[in-house]
Amino acid sequence: MSRIIFESDRLAFTSWKQEDLEDLLDLCQDDQVMRHFPSTLDRSATQVLLDRLIKNYQDHGYTYYRLQRKEDGDFLGFCGMLYQSGHSVLEDNTDIGWRLVSSAWRQGYATEAARRCLEIGADLELGLIDAVTVRDNLGSIAVMKKIGMHFVKEFDNPKLAGSGLNPCLLYQIEL
Ligand SMILES: CC(C)(COP(=O)(O)OP(=O)(O)OC[C@H]1O[C@@H](n2cnc3c(N)ncnc32)[C@H](O)[C@@H]1OP(=O)(O)O)[C@@H](O)C(=O)NCCC(=O)NCCS
Q1: Does residue 167 have a cis bond before it (omega within 30 degrees)?
Q2: How many other C-beta atoms can be found within 10 angstroms of the C-beta atom of residue 95?
Q3: Which residue among 48, 78, 130, 132 is the one 20 to 30 A from 141 at the CA level?
Q4: Tens-digit pLDDT profile for residues 102-148
């Protein structure tokens, strides 16, 4: 049975299965990919992430979808929406996020994926969508701007205190 939930020109957006752990682990253990996060993720932290991606889809009908290139079926990372709660600075809300394998960067994939996800988010009537990044993550900020998100505020995330990664930026879009 196909795992594909929807598609864009070059990408297929799929659900997650436990068998995707090794691909997700490769992504989350890449120092370049995780440069703007406190650390790479070990196997148990990646398992927690995978379980969350699966559960968010079951509970809310959306997730950070698994991305697959249509041309060759290669795993490219993830992009999509996730419900975020219990943040110390921000309201509980749905955010949009992306993490791509470094070999796929700078080819317009994140922008293509995020635009398609916003269409899906509108179909799901998700309303206000957040996106958060550290200020140094120029690639992520460029994607936010390209998909029409607007800057709301700069803030320090207490979870990043002492990491040198603060400040963070909040962008939003109303679907
Ligand atoms: C951020 C990320 C998703 C961007 O993916 P991508 O597929 O390279 O993005 P795109 O090709 O769609 O590029 C979108 C725009 O960002 C620009 N851009 C991409 N990476 C950039 C970088 N490192 N520095 C500056 N601009 C960058 C591109 O030039 C493009 O702008 P343009 O069309 O005006 O030229 C990717 O670098 C990534 O996965 N990074 C690691 C994970 C991460 O940081 N996720 C976000 C956490 S908030």
Answers
A1: yes
A2: 19
A3: 48
A4: 999 999 999 999 999 999 999 999 999 999 999 999 999 999 999 99
Spell out the domain ranges in the chain: 4-174
Could you give the CA distance from residue 34 to residue 21 in angstroms, rounded to a whole number? 17
75's enclosing H/E stretch is strand 75-84
CA distance 76 to 83: 22
For residue 143 and ligand 1, the question of a CB distance below 6 A is answered with yes
Task: Tell me yes or no: is domain 4-174 CATH 3.20.20.210.
Answer: no
- CA-proximal residue: ligand 1, atom 32 (nearest): 142
Residues 25 and 43: beta-carbon distance below 8 Å: yes
Reported pTM: 0.97
